[in-house]
Specification:
eight-stranded parallel beta barrel; two-stranded antiparallel ribbon; 44% helix; TIM Barrel; single chain; globular; alpha/beta
Amino acid sequence: MNSLIAGKPVGGISLGCATFGREIDEAASRELMDYALGRGVTLFDTAAAYGAGESERIVGRWLADRRPERLVVATKLLPPYDPAKLEGQFAESLRRLGLESVDLLYLHHWHATAELPGTLQVLDQLVRTGRVRALGASNFSAAQLDSALSHQDRLGLARFAVVQNNHNFAVSDLTPEFLALCAIHRITVVTYSPLGAGFLTGKHRAGVQAGSRFALVPGHQDIYFQEAPRRRLAELEAIAARHHRGLAELALAWALRTPGVDTVLIGGRGRAHLDQAFAAQAWRDPKVLADLGRS
């Protein structure tokens, strides 16, 4: 069943564009977008931070050439969220994307400035003037989201309608409290990094692989190379051994079936990464799914 974002249907798999201009060049990025669109993917997710704006530029040039209908385009702004500069930052994203408006605009990370009245009023104006169709909050905790929503309600402003958090078998920011809050407020839940930036493939057991996400963005190492995520990887390896399945397909199947999640962002460097996600989504093996569900 599809969910709606900005009034447009979005399926269970969406395209994350973080690799564009950083891990893959424009030609490979365009090929991946063409393939995703052909597979029925309707949400493309980028950000001002990805490739220092290059991801937005690549997506924008592709949009200008393809002009796809009913595609949801999402981007994100980085903190601090200075009310005096926010509109200008958004205008820069629009310029890179070659658009007059976007379907979904996120605040990329929590920051105290996210709930300043001035910040929320600028976001409200972007919605009221039609330059943004829906507001999103990314990498917020339940308490932070609840506080921001309360400020928006008190001021009578447009509310955050979509959230996006990290969620995978090893590390998750989707607490029960967070999901309950989203359910109460009918907020669409988007997740990213179902393979834990490659951690859940097991390829980094002997150390960080050269050219990988962990090598290019070293900050991710602090999230995953810890005792608790390593225990979770060991659990996944045990399930894989019992059922003679691959780690990546198990991790994807788990993430794609999380109750309360509307769509999962799948990134990567080529069509094979999307193919394995669609294959995991199509799984119907009750024994494997039951084993994953107990973990």
